[in-house]
Description:
InterPro entries: Cyclic-di-GMP_PDE-like, EAL_dom, FHA_dom
Protein name: EAL domain-containing protein
Organism: Zhongshania aquimaris
Pfam family, one: EAL
Distance between the termini: 62 Å
Shape: globular
Strand order of the largest sheet: 12-13-14-15-16-17-18-19
Amino acid sequence: MDTIYYLESCIVSNGIPQRIVLDKLPMTIGRSTDCDVVVNSASLSRIHAQIDYQDGKVVLKDLASTNGCFVNHQRIESNTDIQIQVGDIVHFAGIEYCTKVEQDTDDDEDHTRISMQTLPKHFAVKSKEFAELLEQQLVTTFQQIITSRNGDVYAYELLGRGKHPALGASPYELFKIAESLNKQIELSVLFRRQGFIQAELAGIDKPLFFNSHPEECHNPDKLLKELTELRKLHPSLTLFFEVHEAAVTDIGAMVEIRNGLSALNIGLAYDDFGAGQARLRELTEAPPDIIKFDISLVRGVGNSESPRYRLLASLNRLVQEMGIATLAEGVETEEDAAACKEIGIDYFQGYFYGRPAAIIAD
Length: 362
């Protein structure tokens, strides 16, 4: 009998394989149909990771993905091989797998076999630990700088992280657990409330961009009530509410949210613009203050002769002519930064300018 390694997931989804058998390596994993294993999750990069067999060991390599690979909740460096062993927890962005082993009794089969069948039973999600995280507010906040064209710090984006010892810090992992328990809005609210508290204690006087879960926009009354309470608690903060492009589907709801935010003196930003279907109609009927161009439009824009450059330049011109400021997300190289400035984008965010860092109170 041959020893077969495989990865198992607790996530129930048509787009996410629940068992990946590692019997023919190397194997690539990502959103692209060119990958050996296709995982239909927006959090994964097109070609996210590779698993190989080297010197008798199964090794994982992160292929410079946006949201990273994690082994036992520790992010691995891009393009670096790391051994994975039976019992290890592996994350591709927020998708969790457990490394397991079994004996293969079919000695004659030697071709690639990637099994995506439903498991006879699902792993129990970490509901007890997650309940503790919510009840004890075991989260913290990181900040990432947003710069203006002259290089000065214009604002910060608030980014939630977990602090429960039995759960990962990654918000992607935590939101996957939250969604399985229908607690995604509670987690989003907790991240937001803790972020405002820490920012105020740290004396941050720059604008603060804060995130929302797409589900929150389906109930504008509840969302605006919660934001009204937060505004009363933090009247001095300059705030921008970020809405993911995928949530901008109900124009009536977005108009209501837009008007409610204006009454609270909170700006509106459409996040990840261009990641999916760029909804131009919403720009006219529920116009934001800022559009954040998705990393998929920004990465590799450094070549001024490329179609990507021309597309971003056209979109930037269109948006600015509507009186909306623009921001490039995911700027990671000097070439992309220079191209975005040449195009005329107003603000910039990404590893080239600074990685997320913990907020330090005064």
